[in-house]
Amino acid sequence: MIELYVLLAAMIIAALVAIEIKDLLAAAVALGIVGFSVAIMFILLQAPDLAIVQIVVETLTVVFFAAVILRTTNSDTTVGGFRRELVLPTVVYVGFGLLFLLVAGQAMAGLPGFGNPTMLVAREYIALGLERTGAGNVVAAIILDFRGYDTLGEVTVLFTAVVGVLTIMRRAGRKGQGAEGRG
Amino acid sequence: MIALFACLLLLLIGLYAVVTKRNIIRIIIGFSLVEYAVNLFFALVGFKHNGIPPIITHLGQSRSNFVDPVPQALVLTAIVIGLATTALMLALAMRIYEKYRTFDITEIRRLKG
Amino acid sequence: MDARFVPLFVVIPMAAAFLIPLLAKLWQRSADLIANAAAAALLGISVYGAASLVTESQVLVYRMGGWAPTLGITLAYDHLTALVALAVNALGLCALLFSVRYLDHYTGRWKFYTLFMLILAGLNGVTVTGDMFNLFVFIEIAAVSSYALVAFGTDFDELEAGFKYMVIGEIGGTAILLAIAMLYARASTLNMAVVSQVMAGFGRTPLFWFIVGAFLVGFAVKMAMVPFHAWLPDAHPSAPAPVSALLSGVFIKVLGVYAMSRVMFNVFGLSRANAPAFFNLLLGFGVVSIVAGGLLAYVQKDYKRLLAYSSVSQIGYILIGLGIGNYWGIVGALFHILAHALGKGLLFLTAGSVEHATGTRDLDKLSGLEKSMPVTAWSYLLGSLSLAGVPPFAGFFSKFFIIVGAVSAGMYWLAILAALFSTVTLGYLVSVVNRAFFVRKDREPTAAREVPASMVIAMLALLILTVALGVGFRPVLDKLVGPAAQNLIQGLGYARAILGG
Amino acid sequence: MRGMSLIVQTVARLLAGMLFLFGTYIVLHGHLTPGGGFAGGVLIAAAFILVSLAFGSVEQTERNSYTLSSVVESLGGVLFVSLALAGYAAGTFFFQGAAAYGTGTPLRLISGGIILPANIAIGIKVGAGLFAVFLALGASRFVMKD
Q1: Given D26, D42, D111, which is nearest A60 (Cβ)?
Q2: B100 contact partners, CB below 8 Å, separation of at least 6
Q3: Which residues on C lie below 8 Å from A103 (Cβ)?
Q4: pLDDT digits (tens, 9 = 90+) for B13-65
Q5: How far out from the chain centre does Cα C174 lie?
Q6: Is A101 touching B (CB cutoff 8 A)?
Q7: In angstroms, what separates the C-alpha of D6 from chain A's closest C-alpha?
Q8: From chain C, which residues contact B within 8 Å (Cβ)?
Q9: Nearest chain D Cα to B80, which residue?
Q10: Residues D81-137: tens digit of each pLDDT
Q11: C-alpha of C300 from chain center
C-alpha cells in the first residue's frame, strides 16, 4: 500500500499549491492534479467505477474553471506576501485543525480497522446482485436498482444545477433592468 | 488509519482556503478540495485488504473478497452532486465578476451584518 | 392502510420540474398552470395522508422497488411526517399562487417555477425519507435550488448573498456527508431504522459523539441557529418574496429542525434522560438565537431583513422546545413549526406585495399604506399578532405549550425568558405597522394600489389558516401534533414501528 | 469565438467521433463493466465541447444548441422518471427493477432489467445538461436570453 501514501502526500502538496499560488489558472490545474490523484487512488482502492467518473468529472471541472478564468481574470491580487491581518485567523485555524484531528483521531479509534469493513448490507448486495437484478456490476446494481431512488435524486441535483446556472446567467433578472456592469 | 488522517488533513487545507482566502475562485477551489477529501474518506471506508473490484465477469466466480460496493455507489452520487455545486458556484462567481469587476470579496461586500 | 401514495410526494414535483422546461417552450404561461396544479395536488395528498393517519393511526412504510428495508430505500410516513408535509405544501401552494402576478417584474418565468418545484421536491423528499444517504441527497436538491433562487434577481446584492449562502450552506452539507460516511463505516447500513438498532449496540463511544456533532453542525447551518446564522439575513431578503416565504417558513425547519430531530431522537435515540448535555446544548443555542435574533431585528430598516432576523429568533423558540425535551416542550416546538410556517409565510408575502406595489422595502420610505392597501396591512397586523403569541392566534398556543413544558421541567427562568421575548417579538413586528402602514406625521402616505386578486387570495388563505389553527387548536393538538411529539419521544421505538414487530 | 486552425479542426472532428462512440459504449455497458450513464454522458458532453471549441461558433448556432440541449435534458429527465413510474403504474412498486423488466441473460448486453434503459436516460440527460452548462459558462460572449 506504499503507493497509496505516496499519492496522499502528493495530493496534500498539490492542494497547498492550489490554495497558495498566485495565478488562478495554475491553481485550477493544481486542483486538477489533486482530482486525478483521487482517481488513481480509487483504482488502488479497487473502485473502477469511481475512477472513471472521477476522471471525467475532474476533466470537466478543470474545463469549467478554465472557461470562467479565461473569461474573467487569472491574477489573484489577494495572495502572496506577509499579511498581518491574516496571522490571527491562521493561528486560530491551526489550533482548530489540531483540535479537530485530535477529536477525530479519538473517534476513529472506534471504527473497524482500515481494510476490514463490516459489510453488513454489502454482503447481501454481493450475494443477491446478479441473481436479483441481472447486472454483473454490483455497483451498477446498487445505484440503479437497489438504491435507484438515490440516483433519481442525484440526476435531479444535476438538473437543478443546470437550471440554476442558466438562471444565473440571464442577461437581466428584472424587466427593464439594463445590462449594467457587463463588458 | 494514516490514510484516513491524511484525508482529514486535505479537508482542513480546503477549509482553510474557504475560511481565510478572499478571492472567490480560490474559495471555490478550497471547497472542491473539501469535497474530494470527504469522497475519498468515504471510499477508503469500503476498502478491503486483498480485495478485488465488485464486478462479476463470469458465472460461478468467487465473490468472497469483493471490496464493499456500497460506499462506491454512494460516492458516485456524491461526486456528481459535487460537480453540480461547483458548476453553480462558478456561475455565481462569473456573474459577480461581471457586476463588480473583481473577485476580491473585501471589495464586494455591500451587505451589512 | 395502503402506503402507495407516499412516493407521490416526490414524484409529482419532480415530474412537474422536468415537464415545465419542455412545455414552456411551446406555451409560455403553461409554467404557471403546471406549477400551481402540482402544488395543489401535493396539498391534496398531504391532506389525504394526514386524514387517513388520523383515522387509522399507524406508521406507513413504502419500500422503493419492493426491496426489504436493509437492501432498498424505505419511505416512512408517520404523524410527524404528515405535520411537516402539511406545512410545506400549504405554504408552497399559497406562495406559488402569489408568484403568478409577482413574477411580472422578473424575467425567466419557467426557470423560477422549475426551481420552485425542485425545492418542493427536495423538502417533501426529506420529509418522507427513511434512509440516511437519501436524506443527504434530498437536502442537496432543496439546497441547490434555493441557492439559485436566492440569486434569481441577478443584481449586486442578490448574487453576493447567493454566493455567501451557497458557500456556508455547502459546508453544512459536507459536514452531513462526513457524518454519514463515519456512520456507514461503523453501522455498515443506511436504513434509519436498522442504523438505530445497530448503533444502539455500540454504546456512547467518542465515535458516536463525533457523528452526532458532525450532524449537529450540518443541521445547525441549515436551520441558521446563532452562531451559524450569518447567511440567513442576507439570503432570505434577497430572494423573490414567495421564495423568502418558503425559505423562512418551511425550508429552515425541514432541512434543519425536522431532519435534526428525526436523526437525533429516532436514529440515535437521544433523550433528556440519557443525554442531558446534548439537550442543554440545544437550550443554549436556542436562548442565544432568541436573544440575538430578536435584538438584531429591532434595528433593521429593511422590511424583509427585519422578518429574516425574526426567523432566527423564532427558530430559537423551536430549539428550546426541543431542548426542554418533555412532552409539552416538544409539542410546543412542533406546533410552532406549523404556526411559524403559516405566520412568517404570510408576513413575507405582505412584504412582497408592498414591494410589488411601491417598488421599495425600505421602512423609512414607506408610510400610510393602510389606506391604499387594506388587505395587506390587516394581513400583516394579524399575522404578526399570531407570531408574537397573542391569543387566540396559533402562535400563542405554541409559546404557551413551550412555557408549560419549561415550567413542568422546573426551568422557570426559561419560561420567563420565553414570555419576555414574545413581547420583544411583538415590539419589532408592530414597529413595521407603525412605520409602513399608519400615516406618519412628518410624511405623505406612499402612493400605492392594492395588489392583484391572486396575490390577495394567497395572503387571505394563509391568514385564514393562521386564525383557524389558533381557534381550532384542540383537534390539531389531539390528532396531529400530540401523536407527532410521541413519534419523537418514542426514540428507538421508531425502528420497531418501521421494521414491524 | 473564432475557430482554430484546420489541423486542429480535423483532429478534433476525429477525436470527437471517437469520444462519442466511447461514451455510448460506456453508457450501454454500465451494468457489466465499470462506468455507466453518468460517465458516458460526460464523455458525450465532452465530444460536443471539443467540437464547439475547435470550430468556434456564431451566436445563432450557439443559441440553437443551447435551446436544443436544454430540451434534450428535460426529455432525459422525463424518460428517467417514467421508467421509475412504469412499475408503479403497473401496480407494483415505484422503481421496480428486474422483477418488472426481467433480468435477461446474465452478463450479456440485454440484461439487468431497469439498469440499461435507466443508464441510457441518464446518459442523454447528463450529456445534454453539461453541454448546456459549458455553453452558459464558457462559450462566446453571448448572454442567455430568457
Answers
A1: D42
A2: A181, B107, B108, C156
A3: 206, 210
A4: 999 999 988 899 999 999 999 999 999 999 999 888 888 998 888 887 888 88
A5: 21
A6: yes
A7: 22
A8: 133, 137, 140, 144, 147-148, 151, 154-157, 159-164, 166-167, 170-171, 174, 177-178, 180-181, 184-185, 190, 233-234, 296
A9: D38
A10: 888 888 887 777 777 766 666 667 777 777 777 888 889 999 999 999 999 998 888
A11: 23
Across the interface, whether the CB atoms of C15 and D78 are under 8 A apart is answered yes
- The pLDDT score that the predictor gives to residue A157 is 95
Write out the residue range of the structural domain in which residue D109 sits. Answer: 6-138
* A109 and C CB contact within 8 Å: yes
DSSP helix/strand/coil, C317: helix
**Does residue A112 fall inside a structural domain?**
no
Q: Could you give the CA distance from residue C25 to residue D69 in angstroms, rounded to a whole number?
A: 13
ipTM: 0.94
Which residue among A132, A159, A171 places its CB closest to the CB of D73? A159
- Residue A68 forms part of a structural domain: yes
Q: Check whether the bond before C475 is cis (ω within 30° of 0).
A: no
C and D: number of Cβ contacts within 8 A = 48
CA distance C328 to C334: 10
Mean pLDDT of D18-27: 93
Q: What number of C-beta contacts closer than 8 Å exist between A and B?
A: 251
List CB contacts of C137: < 8 A, sequence separation 6 or more: A150, A153, A154, A157, B77, B81, C125
Three-state SS for C63? Answer: strand
Domain covering B1-39+68-113 assigned CATH 3.40.50.300 in the classification? no
Chain D, nearest residue to C73 by Cα: D95
Q: In chain C, what residues touch B38 (CB-CB under 8 Å)?
A: 174, 177-178, 181
Strand ranges for C51-184 from DSSP E: 60-63, 74-77
Number of domain units in chain D: 1
A107 close to C (CB below 8 A): yes
* Domain boundaries defined on chain B: 1-39+68-113
pLDDT tens, residue by residue, C439-492: 777 777 777 888 899 999 999 999 999 999 999 899 999 999 999 999 999 989
Nearest CA among C230, C388, C257 for reference residue C316: C257
Q: What is the pLDDT of residue D108?
A: 75
Point out the residues of chain C with pLDDT beneath 70.
1, 501
A21-61 per-position pLDDT tens digit: 989 999 999 999 999 999 999 999 999 999 999 999 999 99
A73 and A12 together in one domain: yes
| 3 state SS of C468 | helix
